[in-house]
Sequence to fold (265 residues):
Amino acid sequence: MIQFDILTLFPEMFAGVFDTSIIGRARERGFVEITLHNIRDYAPGKHRVTDDTPYGGGGGMIMKPEPIFYAVEAILNVEIPKEGYNKLHRQGYPPIVLLTPQGQPLGQPLVQKWVTDYERILFICGRYEGVDERVRQYLATDELSIGDYVLSGGEIAAMVMVDAMTRLIPGVLGDTEATTKDSHSDGLLEYPHYTRPAEFRGHGIPEILLSGHHANLEVWRRQQSLARTLARRPDLLTATDLSEADQSFLDSLPQNPAAGEDEGD
Ligand code: SAH
Fold:
């Protein structure tokens, strides 16, 4: 069971994604608990202002620090010390992730580590030009990015992370093996999949899939994974533990960009 707390100005964005399919079922079955917190509810004053113009000018709006600090204090029922939340995190309080294109890029090993290490995670979704720097300095324990591009808000990034983590919680997917073979789990891209019909518009499927020969099939799948990774993402191969058999298979491949493509017929 993992608890996710999401701090956002737009909680309504999450309906749909969090209510459907795997995440929806994981919530119903108690594998995850997701709580959406509207930052506006914690903004002081009659007008509940959550953003303001940047000091020094430059245009755009910046999310104010107070509502975000107050929200965390209320959610965790704690007072954040002047030196910053990290002190509390070291005492066992949950990590607070600031979603930002300036953060550490998310990858499958990181997702796996977070699922293993934590029972509760808070996410802060920025909007506009982003959040006041003091949120980063004295509140966030981690800064994560979902890739080198800029979104209009952290909400979609939070959805990506909650989705990627939830499907790794043991029991969430029926077949636990499925996640260990997924692309990026072992540093390789996954082999191609086929389902019925065996022939579609004159396009067949690889014979091996119909052979019923389990050992040969495993070899074929491994080789497909290797060939695809070499063709599409050779950068991943350098970070992967390869067996001697893997290496000699790779050495036997023509080093052209089409390797691993169109082997369906
Ligand atoms: N001016 C900021 C970008 C603001 S984008 C900068 O240049 O760094 C608005 C908000 O969207 C950010 O505060 C962040 O929460 C979210 N966001 C944008 N791109 C993101 C990414 N690649 N990963 C995670 N969050 C992102």
The chain has a mean pLDDT of 94.
